[in-house]
Specification:
The structure holds two protein chains of two kinds. By secondary structure, chain A is of the alpha+beta class. Chain A has three domains: 47 residues, Uridine Diphospho-n-acetylenolpyruvylglucosamine Reductase, domain 2 (2-Layer Sandwich), CATH 3.30.43; 103 residues, Uridine Diphospho-n-acetylenolpyruvylglucosamine Reductase, domain 3, CATH 3.30.465; 107 residues, 2-Layer Sandwich (Enolase-like, domain 1), CATH 3.30.390. Chain A is 34% helix and 25% strand. Chain A contains eleven helices and twelve strands. In chain A, strands 4-5-8-6-7 form a five-stranded antiparallel sheet. A four-stranded antiparallel sheet of chain A has the order 9-10-11-12, sandwiched between helices. In chain A, helix 9 runs antiparallel to helix 10 and helix 10 packs antiparallel against helix 11. By secondary structure, chain B is of the alpha+beta class. Chain B has two domains: 73 residues, Ubiquitin-like (UB roll); 76 residues, DNA polymerase, domain 1, CATH 1.10.150. Helix content of chain B is 34%, strand content 15%. The radius of gyration of chain B is 16 Å and the shape is globular. The termini of chain B are far apart. Classes of the chains: A alpha+beta, B alpha+beta. The interface between A and B is large, with 40 and 36 residues.
């Protein structure tokens, strides 16, 4: 079975029309780094495919303090942003230089664990997705999107909206090698500390620790109202370790991932506690 | 209207000259280079974007040619190892790889040199750490990387002394 058509729409509207016409039969490529690998492995035989590379969805804009990232923006472009946020740090650690040229911010949202590192900083930064369908556009919190995956046949994620980072952030990734590897675990933390050093707001996001990127909300609850001291950090790390739900695959066992969730949440909070 | 493409013609600049290939949908740049244009320096490795052996330059950016549908290369510019030098006119990187025994089986070499060229085009005088990061997506299972890194350091020195690229 071979692919009979490859569409390269020039506008978002054309892309939505194609999705409406072909629905789930149409395989969508952001940068193609996931889809093409599956095609080479014989795991996916798209009858119809569409690339979003030329659909005018590759801009990054700042608006009212928010960062609006077109869904087809290459990861390399995010890595080169100069805001020193967990987002840029994570982008610079995803894949390798050649992969980052191709892989896109929006495409990465659809990668199954242990791939999909970008969801981790985006969850920690409380990002929202802008979804467009025939005659409608709306935004949905990333967390809700990840848990339900309820895109309709004619809908596309067109951009990612990231609020201005509050407080301080950290991102750590453990892989089996330096580059071009999915995560054993990835951890992003965004936290606001008051003048007494007490945590008033915190989000901890974990990658490769569940079927999709998740928040460690019990661990967050441990931190609220407390200083980032050793005992508190230890308790939060243990909580994250207990509440995550990692899988065993060729990279790591579920047991090892769970241990590393504890270690890396601990390290990320340590880093936050030390930073000023 | 969006373009619907069954078997179609793609034209692009390849190593500075116009080329055209007739391809089926989702044919990769790697397959077009190797099987249609018979340029075999670019290697077919994992097909997953994991090994870097198919690395080429697309509009002077580093890409994995196994993951790029050649349709998206239409109107753009591709550089492969054959485009930067060859017998009798070696690029300083090729010369340095030879002098430093930076290739054993040679399968990774084309990708390594393309990644190194991408680095040196942007950063003519990289640190060892910068070289390592630029090559982080390219696997070598023979040399242990040290001769490769030393070759790139040497090539950077030669090029800064004005050896012709």
């Amino acid at each position: 079975m071979s692919t009979t058509a490859f569409f390269v729409p020039r506008t978002v509207e054309q892309a939505i029309d194609l999705k409406r016409e072909h629905g789930k039969n149409l395989v969508v490529l952001g940068g193609g780094t996931i889809v093409m690998g599956l095609v080479h492995d014989g795991l996916l035989f798209p009858k119809l495919a569409m690339s979003l590379a030329r659909a005018g969805m590759s801009d990054v804009r700042r608006r009212d303090g928010w960062l609006e990232i077109g869904a087809a923006t290459p990861i390399a472009r995010l890595a080169a942003l100069k805001g020193a946020t967990t987002l840029e740090r994570a982008a610079g650690m995803l894949g390798g230089p050649a992969l980052r040229t191709l892989a896109t911010a929006g495409g990465n949202l659809f990668a199954k664990a242990p791939y999909g590192d970008m969801c981790v900083p985006l969850l920690a930064m409380d990002a929202e997705l802008e979804i467009a369908g025939a005659g409608r556009r709306y935004t949905v919190p990333l967390e809700q999107f990840l848990s339900r995956r309820s895109l309709k046949n004619d809908e596309l994620v067109v951009s990612i909206h990231v609020p201005k980072a509050q407080g301080r952030g950290a991102y750590l990734k453990l892989g089996r090698r330096q580059a071009n590897t999915p995560s054993v675990v990835a951890v992003a933390v965004q936290a606001v500390l008051d003048t007494n050093g007490k945590c008033t707001d915190v989000r901890i996001a974990l990658g490769a620790a569940a079927p999709q990127a998740v928040r460690a909300k019990k661990a967050e609850a441990v931190l609220i109202g407390r200083r980032l001291e050793d005992a508190t950090i230890k308790a939060a790390a243990e909580s994250a370790q207990a509440e995550c739900n990692p899988a065993t695959d060729s990279l790591a066992s579920a047991w090892y991932r769970r241990e590393m969730v504890g270690v890396f949440v601990h390290r990320a909070l340590d880093e936050l506690g030390r930073s000023t | 209207m969006a373009t619907q493409l069954a078997t179609h013609i793609v034209t692009f600049q390849l190593n500075g000259r116009p080329h055209a290939v007739t391809v089926a949908p989702l044919t990769t740049l790697r397959t077009a280079l190797r099987e249609d244009l018979h340029l075999h320096a670019t290697k077919a490795g994992c097909g997953q974007g994991g090994c870097g052996s198919c690395t080429v330059l697309l509009d002077n950016e580093l890409v994995l040619s196994c993951l790029v549908p050649v349709t998206l290369v239409d109107g753009r510019s591709v550089t492969t190892l054959e485009g930067i030098g060859g017998p009798g006119r070696l690029h300083p990187l090729q010369d340095a790889f030879h002098d430093h025994f930076a290739a054993q089986c040679g399968y990774c070499t084309a990708g390594m040199i393309m990644a190194a060229k991408w680095l040196l085009d942007r950063n003519p005088n990289p640190t060892r750490a910068e070289i390592q990061m630029a090559l982080a997506g390219n696997l070598c299972r023979c040399t242990g990387y040290v001769p490769i890194i030393e070759a790139i350091e040497d090539a950077a020195r030669r090029m800064s002394k004005g050896v012709k690229r």
